[in-house]
Design brief:
single chain; 490 residues; mainly alpha; Rossmann fold
């Protein structure tokens, strides 16, 4: 008798190297690819607005790819357990498969569903489709999870030979005759796109979906990857970075695909006698692994500092920082590279990684605004809003998390701008008010002679004539605040 399996799709929206889909297609006669939209089950970290935009287009691309294989994408809404049970009834499925996710709320939800479906007599299996290594695989000599990245990377590097081999996409999929029965939804019914078209800039920068992901990977691996180490910190050079993070987050690519293609690129470089190596790109893949491991072992860090002593840090009160937070969000702090980064984020749904560190340091240290405010804003506005990476990045910037920047490391945004955007190209591209500012002063217009400011159209009422905070005074204020807990967080 023919057997049927449901593949519960989540953030694994691809056909190639898709472990759950591959297992279903090779062990069953009929396969039902199903997506269930149940954002409340991820509370309090439901997908933000930018993530929902990406999800809509990624699902649309996946549905088109599945149709070419002969299968519809079944779309339902939650609760997930009820939707899966209804789909089992409608299709006669005897097995349910999915690829694992690692956020605290999702882990708990998936465990409940697995137990319930097995109680119904179904075969239920989950697979690793999102990481090179499971969060529990790499441990210190004492059997503890790593809290420092460098030794974790060395442990991962020693086991690169264990990275799973790539799995082919199915050549075709055969749905059961009754696959279309039940209360299916369309992707449009999910209401993922914004009602007010603030997303117009996204279309210029991104092509969600597996094919867009593969093209971006190939473009990066064919040339820029060789110069990644040297050029990755220059925000004006958009093509110097991979831009793969949203594709990885939504599972349009697997890290295994990136790892294997990077190794191929290294061989190509050597064969051509070219300079460069892929080591730093692989390290970035492993930084992503590090963030997932940390969140898995320390789930409270989404909202609280990893180290308890930082809970006493003297942040400013909301009523005192409300205007400054709004200025930071809108990119009108008067600090050019900070404003450029925040405007890039709003228009494109992303921000260059070097600039992410600069704007995060500015928020937490120069403005003394809690890192959780920044994490929440990034969560809503980034197309690659990954809870593990967002959490690690903000705790690193605030100095209160694993492998964090030292508390006394406060980025000077002027010096950072002059070092990594020396001619001001990045700032000019996102802050048109400074389009005619001379490179010598573009990162510190408040220090420019009056005639220079006037020639650049910077009047006394411009934030670029006087930023919302004095950088040196605010640095001293931050150091004094950190001094209160100095030595207490180990």
């Amino acid at each position: 008798m023919p057997s049927t399996a449901i593949v519960w799709l989540r953030r694994d929206l691809r056909l190639t190297d898709q472990p759950a889909l591959h297992h279903a297609a090779t062990h069953h006669d009929h396969v039902v690819p199903a997506f269930i939209y149940a954002p409340d089950e991820e509370a309090p970290w439901q997908p933000g607005a930018a993530s929902r935009w990406w999800l809509h287009h990624s699902l649309t691309a996946l549905a088109a790819s599945l149709a070419k294989l002969g299968s519809p994408l079944v779309v339902r809404t939650g609760p997930s357990l009820a939707a899966l049970r209804a789909l089992v009834t409608a299709t006669g499925a005897e097995a349910v498969y999915w690829n694992r996710l690692y956020e605290p709320a999702v882990i708990a939800r998936d465990a409940r569903i697995k137990e319930a479906l097995r109680g119904d007599g179904l075969t239920v299996e989950s697979f690793n489709g999102a990481l090179l290594f499971e969060p529990w695989q790499l441990k210190t000599g004492a059997g503890e999870p790593y809290r420092v990245y460098s030794p974790m990377f060395r442990a991962a590097e020693a086991r690169f030979n264990e990275v799973r081999r790539l799995l082919p996409a199915p050549r075709s999929l055969t749905p059961p005759p009754q696959a279309g029965e039940g209360e299916n939804r369309t992707i449009e019914n999910l209401g993922l796109l914004p009602k007010i078209p603030w997303d117009s800039g996204f279309y210029e920068h991104w092509q969600p979906g597996e094919q867009g992901a593969l093209r971006r990977l190939e473009t990066f691996a064919s040339q820029p990857i060789a110069q990644y180490k040297d050029l990755r910190d220059q925000p004006a050079l958009d093509g110097a970075v991979s831009g793969l993070s949203p594709h990885l987050h939504f599972g349009e690519l697997s890290p295994q695909q990136c790892f294997v293609r990077a190794q191929q690129a290294q061989h190509e470089l050597v064969s051509a006698g070219a300079h460069g190596n892929i080591h730093h790109f692989v390290k970035e893949l492993c930084w992503r692994e590090f963030s997932h491991q940390l969140l898995y072992h320390y789930p409270y860090t989404t909202d609280a500092p990893m180290y308890d002593k930082f809970a006493a840090f003297p942040w400013r009160k909301p009523a005192d920082y409300a205007n400054d937070l709004k200025a930071w969000q809108q990119g009108r702090t008067g600090v050019p590279i900070v404003d450029a980064g925040m405007r890039q984020l709003w228009v494109s749904g992303t921000m260059h990684n070097r600039v992410r560190m600069i704007v995060a340091s500015f928020l937490t240290k120069n403005l003394l605004i809690p890192w959780q405010e920044g994490a929440q804003w990034f969560w809503d506005t980034l197309v690659d809003a990954s809870l593990p990476q967002n959490t690690l990045g903000w705790q690193w910037s605030a100095g209160c998390g694993a492998d964090a920047a030292p508390y006394f490391r406060i980025f000077n945004p002027v010096l950072q701008g002059e070092k990594f955007d020396a001619d001001g190209s990045y700032v000019r591209s996102w802050v048109p008010e400074l389009a005619t500012a001379p490179s010598k002063y573009i990162h510190r217009m408040w220090e420019a002679p009056g005639e220079v400011r006037r020639a650049a159209g910077i009047g006394l009422d411009s934030p670029y004539a006087k930023p919302i905070v004095d950088l040196m005074q605010s640095r001293d204020r931050a150091l004094a605040a950190y001094a209160r807990i100095k030595g207490e967080a180990a």
